[in-house]
Amino acid sequence: MKDLFNNTETAFALKSDSELDRAFYLFEMIKREPLVKIGTALTKFALKTHLPVEGLIRSTVFDHFCGGVTEEDCMSVIDKMYTKNVHAVLDYSAEGKEDEVQFDFAMQKTLNTIKFGEEKDSLPFAVFKPTGFGRFDLYQKITEGKTLEIHEELEWKRIIERYDTVSKAAFDADIPLLIDAEETWMQTAADDLIENMMRKYNTKKVIVFGTLQLYRWDRLDYLKELHKRAKKDGFQIGMKLVRGAYMEKERERAEKLSYKDPICENKAATDKMYNDVLTYMIENINEMAVFEGTHNEESAYLLIDLIDKYKLAKNDSRIWFGQLYGMSDHISYNLSKLGYNVAKYLPFGPVKDVMPYLIRRAEENTSVAGQTNRELELLKAERARRKIK
Description:
Layout: H1 8-11, H2 17-30, H3 33-48, H4 54-65, H5 71-82, E1 87-92, H6 100-119, E2 126-128, H7 136-143, H8 150-173, E3 177-179, H9 184-201, E4 208-213, H10 219-233, E5 237-242, H11 247-257, H12 267-283, E6 288-293, H13 297-309, E7 319-324, H14 329-337, E8 342-348, H15 351-367, H16 369-385
Helix pairs in contact: 2-16, 3-15, 4-15, 6-8, 7-9, 8-9, 12-13
């Protein structure tokens, strides 16, 4: 079983030779940090000064990591993945918005994906990011326990209404809703709001999912306390499990402001936290549902082993494997071939608005050298198998 993810024929079955080449050369570039920094700076400048570069971006990095500009634009990608039983999670990935009109627009996009999900078995989840529905600074102020101004109280009320609107729509449509996690200094406000949605909509089954960033050393304790409240108050817990995406920023802020670093001391501690939380959730699967968001092969193998250990069905609706579109196809497609539930996060949105997401993907792949090298080795192996020169 430990060579499950080495089958490149299955992993890249949907990629044409030219798409395989594009992926190979893209990851070759990403692994070179100076190139990523220069490319990022040039891309930001070109977009800011309205240089005609969107076509180039669209045909390279955008099309590799994103499904399209609109929901409809993504449908060919969604349908293609679903031929291999890999589902999609449509993720409107425009970032950095700060006004009420944009927050309402993001809410409408989420409602649209819920509606899409009602019509398409290939779209089993909807998703949104907390700061897509409200200002970061307001989440932070509430997390820090500061008193809100009257206009901020009204603003927070609108955020609550947005959460409730999409959670109710998800409940009515029976489409689970994944809510992402962000920086620690705003996350408590989001967690409390997500718990309220779970309390309201997860009484019979899990509809609302929070997210646990497991590079945080406090997350297993948080989950256990949440579990106590859930059992007492009669609701179920849904969690997406990720390692996390803000480590450098978290550590810099902790050092600058002289508080305890919220991040596990090293990768081994992070891996242990991830595995311990995953194990705890599967041990309590009758009261929980888990979306394992990982590009880590060992974590995927652990979930396979836990499913076997507790004699659960491979396609148990409470257990999902998830990866980002454009990454870790060797995990996604080999798992789906065996009958496990698999979904790819499929970002979409206007090229200019999605650039912060794409830059983060490039920087993440650059900083996690092993991940990029793994992608390259698999792509090399498949090119060799196909005899592509």
